[in-house]
Structures are given as structure tokens and as C-alpha cells.
């Protein structure tokens, strides 16, 4: 059976499963559409939350980031995991106790202001749309490779699938679909990792293989990887190279951005009791850890396999006896078929710059090391592996390692499950903000339940269309785009939720001013370096570390935006009237151990 046929079988079977679940669990009321009628068990909700959380950025892109940068990109692991702990401890139980459907609804009631609610909707839409672009990017990458279609065609196929099960099922259908997607993605992530760990280190568990011994050389695996990449002029894999300040700010932006993500927060509105919200968070951490503890091993082994493929002598320790891959081998060898198929997607490319019939892979910017002497003696013209998109490393790694076809096919299904599960959660958050907070809460308060449900479905369909169109021209690879969304959530939503739960002094004026100040400063900083609406050539300043203000990258600025939000909110509240007594009582009631839904606005 051909690889293409296997891909179709595995992907088609997973699609049929998701759509079948959505039809069976179709939402029939707004309570089912927004919160699954608050009837999801903690274990099921934990699994669904893990799938909602582990997006294309986690499954497809994170290990690729670690593969090409090493230690410095462990910030993604620390920030995302740590942020989930913040969410579980500081926000989720209290928001569940509040007993409403959406984040903007909490903001509007807590700060006794329709204006605050609308600004909350705007912040949610900006964050969620930016985030969903990253998911659609991952969908396009996966489809373009495994269904052998163009990136844009892959995006439209993915959009059609999300439309089928998200618009039909709402939160009820999405919850049980995400449980199935979690099972698919975790199997798809761990099986190839186990195979590759056994190949390279002899360890069954990738987590142990990362710190084990490279069998072919007898060296510690990470030491062997360090030696290999530094011989070729690249930075040491296990060392820290970037700005420590930016690393700290970026990790913090990911943490507090995680805690402010609306599509994750609304998952905690689906459980029966407040105590179940905490249990859900605990189960979700367990399910997330199954992937996140494997990711560093996947990244390092992917980097090793890619480098060893381009420098065949690396496996024997005689790196320069076989210094490169010939163009003839790339065109004819079954072992290098993965290069030909990924080149067709445009995400991998090479160029024989010196015309010697070989493709040399090394850091042509290196100023010291063996590669410099070799380049001088062989008259090399620079790195000839010109394009390696970060997003292909997890998907291509099984092919590079020559794993069985069924493993490659299940990785395809897993990558799509990760991207689509998060996309569905994001689109539900967007549709809830539009239909429940904007239409029902502001524009048409007397709309019927059926009318609101129809509005929710229409707004979700429109969101899918917008996300797909924007996904055709993303501002970066999946994890990079998602990182920007975390910065926006950190600067706008997280502070106002924290102040709404833990401060009786912050009133509507402070909350409104803080959200506007935090979001605007972060958007302006991002657009200055990334461009307006991600249109190429519209950035004011070059997106390079030398040009960043105090060395702070656009993805890290969310932490600064959050500080500005807090400072402005507290400052304005200090010179404004105290919140009404019933609102201060509401803040107290949210934090006392009473039943779910007891704390409601007067």
C-alpha cells in the first residue's frame, strides 16, 4: 500500500470520527453550545482541555523550535506549562464559581459596565484570531505534505472540516471531539518518538534517551549532538545564547498569556462544580505532561537526524569523510525521498551554490571551527540547505528515520488533530463573544434563545472564513504566530481577570483604561517590528535583536504590556470612585467556598 493511500486512510478515519461525534452530540440549546450544559466529568474535561491546549504550536512547531535553537527555546515548555499552573490555581475555579458562559461576560458584570464588556470582546477577538491563524498555518503545512495538495488548498479543507463539527456541535460536540483528538495526537506524537529513541540511544522512553548514550559513538547523546553542530559552525545546542532579560520576559509572557487565553478558560465552565474545575486542571496537567516531557527529546533527535542525513559521516564520527549529500542521491535514493516530497511543499529547499554536485549543510556565518578550514580548502559558497521550515521537523522526522508507513500516516492524523482541536476551541470562544456578549448582551438583549444559537453558529462560520483567509499569509511559522497571541492575552485579558477576582478597589474606569493601555502598547510594539496586519514590508523597524527596545522581542513585550495594564488600572482606580458595595460583595463571594453559580451580579 502506498504512503499516500495510508495517509488518506488514517486522516479520513479520524475525520469521520470527529464528524460522527459532532453529529451525535449536536448542541440543541445555548447552554449546550456555550458550556456543554455543565455536564462534563473532570477526567473527560481534563483530556479535552489538554487537546484544546496542545495546538499545532505544541505538536508541530515547538519541537522544531527546540531542534534549531536548543536550550534557549525551552522557554516555550516552561512558559506554557507554568502558565497552565497559574490558570488552574488563580483563575479557573473562581471564574467557574461566577457561573457565566464567557470571559467578557465576567468582565462586564464584575466591572459593572457594558463598555468594559465590549472592550473585553475586542481583546478576545484580537487574541483569538491571532492564535487561530497559527492553527490554520499548521493545518496547511500538514495537508500540503500528506494529501499532496497546495498549502492554500489544505487550509480550505481544514476550514471545511472545522465548520462541520464545530458549527454543529458547539461546546458539547467540541468537548467529546477533543477527547478523541487527544487520543489521536498523543499516540501520534509518542510512537515515532519511541521508535527514534530506540534507534539512536537504545532507550524505550524518549525522556531517558535524551540523557542517554548515543549507541553508534558511545558518547552521551547531547554531547554528541553538541559536537556535531559545533563542528559545522552552529551554536552549541545545550548552551544559553540569547538575552537573559528577553528570555525571562518571554517566559513570563507565555505564562500569563496562557492564564488569559479565553478558549482555555471557557473549558472550565463545562464542569458541574467548582471543585471539578480544580480536578479538571489537575487531569489536564497530567495529559499535557505526556507530550511536553517528550518534546525536548523529539526536538533534539530531529536535529540530530537532519544533520546526520546531510553529513553521513557524522554517525561514524568521521564527519568530513562523507561531507555532504549528492544531488544524484537526493533525486534517486529511497532513503532521501522525504527531501523530494517536502521540497514540493516549499517548506524545504536547497541550492548547489558552488556547482560541485553536493549539498553542503553548515553555518556559513561561522568565524571559527573546523568548518571554516574545510570551506577554505573546498571553495564552498555557503550553506546549501537554504530552507528548512521549523514546522516540518516533527512531521518529517519519522520519514528521515525511515519508520514504517503507518507511523508516518498516524503522525499526519495527529498533527491535524492538534491543530483542529485548538482551532475549534478558539472559534467557539470567538462565536460566544460575538453572539452572547455583543449581540445578546449589547445589541439585541431580547433575542430569543433560538436566535442567539443561530447567531452563534453564523458568527463561528464567519470566524472560520476570516481565520482561513488570514492563515494564507501568516506572520511566521505556527509557534511564532501563537507566541504573539500569548503576548496580546498577557497584556489585556490576564490583568483584568486577576484584578476582577482579587481586588475590590479596581473599578470600571481603571479596568477599561488598563485594558486599552495594555493592548494598544503591545499591538503598536508588535506592528512596529512585524508589520501592520502582517503585511510584508509594512514594519517600521527591522525585526532584529539589535533594533529591539532594550533587546525585548515583540513576542516578549506582552509582559511589559501587562505591567502597563496593571499600573494604569490601579492608577486610574486610585483617583476614581470605589466600586459599588454590591460589586465589592461580589468579589468577596467569588472567593468564598460556596456552590457554583452563587456569585452573580446584582
TrEMBL record:
One of its GO terms (cellular component) is plasma membrane. The chain crosses the membrane at residues 6-25, 46-71, 77-95, 116-133, 153-170, 182-200, 247-269, 281-302, 406-434, 455-472, 478-498, 510-528, 548-572. It is a multi-pass membrane protein. GO terms for biological process: carboxylic acid transport; sodium ion transport. It is found in: Membrane. Keywords: Cell membrane, Ion transport, Membrane, Sodium, Sodium transport, Symport, Transmembrane, Transmembrane helix, Transport. It comes from the Bacteria. GO terms for molecular function: symporter activity. Pfam families: SSF. This is Cation acetate symporter. It comes from Paracoccus gahaiensis. The lineage of its organism: Bacteria, Pseudomonadati, Pseudomonadota, Alphaproteobacteria, Rhodobacterales.
Amino acid at each position: 500500500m502506498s504512503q499516500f493511500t495510508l495517509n488518506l486512510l488514517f486522516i479520513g478515519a479520524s475525520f469521520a470520527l470527529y464528524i460522527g461525534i459532532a453529529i451525535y452530540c449536536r448542541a440543541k440549546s445555548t447552554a449546550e453550545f456555550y458550556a456543554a450544559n455543565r455536564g462534563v466529568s473532570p477526567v473527560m474535561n481534563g483530556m479535552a482541555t489538554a487537546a484544546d491546549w496542545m495546538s499545532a504550536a505544541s505538536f508541530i512547531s515547538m519541537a522544531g523550535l527546540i531542534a534549531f535553537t536548543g536550550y534557549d527555546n525551552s522557554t516555550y515548555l516552561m512558559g506554557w506549562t507554568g502558565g497552565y499552573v497559574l490558570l488552574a490555581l488563580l483563575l479557573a475555579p473562581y471564574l467557574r464559581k461566577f457561573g457565566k458562559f464567557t470571559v467578557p461576560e465576567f468582565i462586564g458584570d464584575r466591572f459593572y459596565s457594558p463598555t468594559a464588556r465590549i472592550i473585553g470582546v475586542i481583546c478576545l477577538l484580537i487574541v483569538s484570531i491571532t492564535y487561530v491563524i497559527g492553527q490554520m498555518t499548521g493545518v496547511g503545512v500538514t495537508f500540503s505534505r500528506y494529501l499532496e495538495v497546495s498549502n492554500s488548498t489544505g487550509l480550505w479543507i481544514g476550514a471545511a472540516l472545522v465548520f462541520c463539527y464545530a458549527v454543529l456541535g458547539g461546546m458539547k460536540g467540541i468537548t467529546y471531539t477533543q477527547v478523541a483528538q487527544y487520543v489521536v495526537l498523543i499516540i501520534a506524537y509518542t510512537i515515532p518518538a519511541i521508535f527514534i529513541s530506540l534507534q539512536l540511544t537504545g532507550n524505550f522512553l524518549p525522556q531517558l534517551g535524551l540523557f542517554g548514550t548515543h549507541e553508534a559513538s558511545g558518547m552521551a547523546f547531547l554531547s554528541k549532538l553538541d559536537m556535531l553542530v559545533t563542528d559545522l559552525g552552529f551554536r552549541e545546542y545545550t548552551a544559553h545564547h540569547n538575552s537573559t532579560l528577553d528570555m525571562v520576559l518571554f517566559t513570563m509572557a507565555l505564562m500569563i498569556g496562557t492564564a488569559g487565553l479565553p478558549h482555555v478558560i471557557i473549558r472550565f465552565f463545562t464542569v458541574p462544580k467548582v471543585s471539578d474545575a480544580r480536578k479538571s486542571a489537575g487531569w489536564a496537567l497530567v495529559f499535557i505532561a505526556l507530550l511536553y516531557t517528550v518534546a525536548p527529546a523529539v526536538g533534539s533527535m530531529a536535529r540530530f537526524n537532519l544533520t546526520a542525513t546531510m553529513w553521513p559521516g557524522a554517525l561514524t564520527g568521521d564527519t568530513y569523510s562523507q561531507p555532504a549529500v549528492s544531488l544524484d542521491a537526493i533525486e534517486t535514493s529511497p532513503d532521501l525521498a522525504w527531501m523530494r516530497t517536502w521540497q514540493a511543499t516549499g517548506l524545504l529547499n536547497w541550492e548547489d551554490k558552488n556547482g560541485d554536485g553536493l549539498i553542503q549543510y553548515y553555518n556559513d556565518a561561522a568565524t571559527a571551527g573546523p568548518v571554516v578550514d574545510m570551506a577554505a580548502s573546498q571553495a564552498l559558497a555557503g550553506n546549501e540547505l537554504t530552507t528548512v521550515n521549523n514546522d516540518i521537523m516533527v512531521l518529517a522526522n519519522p520519514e528521515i528515520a525511515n519508520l514504517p508507513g503507518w507511523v508516518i500516516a498516524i503522525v499526519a492524523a495527529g498533527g491535524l488533530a492538534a491543530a483542529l482541536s485548538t482551532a475549534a476551541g478558539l472559534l467557539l470562544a470567538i462565536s460566544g463573544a460575538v453572539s452572547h456578549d455583543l449581540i445578546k448582551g449589547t445589541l439585541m438583549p431580547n433575542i430569543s434563545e433560538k436566535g442567539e444559537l443561530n447567531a452563534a453558529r453564523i458568527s463561528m462560520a464567519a470566524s472560520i472564513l476570516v481565520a482561513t483567509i488570514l492563515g494564507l499569509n501568516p506572520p511566521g511559522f505556527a509557534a511564532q504566530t501563537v507566541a504573539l497571541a500569548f503576548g496580546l492575552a498577557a497584556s489585556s485579558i490576564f490583568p483584568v481577570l486577576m484584578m476582577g477576582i482579587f481586588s475590590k478597589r479596581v473599578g470600571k474606569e481603571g479596568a477599561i483604561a488598563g485594558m486599552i493601555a495594555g493592548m494598544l502598547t503591545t499591538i503598536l510594539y508588535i506592528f512596529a517590528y512585524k508589520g501592520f496586519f502582517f503585511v510584508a514590508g509594512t514594519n517600521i523597524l527591522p525585526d532584529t535583536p539589535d533594533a529591539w527596545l532594550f533587546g525585548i522581542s515583540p513576542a516578549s513585550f506582552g509582559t511589559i504590556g501587562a505591567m502597563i495594564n496593571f499600573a494604569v488600572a490601579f492608577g486610574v482606580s486610585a483617583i476614581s470612585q470605589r466600586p459599588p458595595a454590591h460589586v465589592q460583595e461580589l468579589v468577596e463571594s467569588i472567593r468564598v467556598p460556596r456552590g457554583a453559580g452563587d456569585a452573580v451580579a446584582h
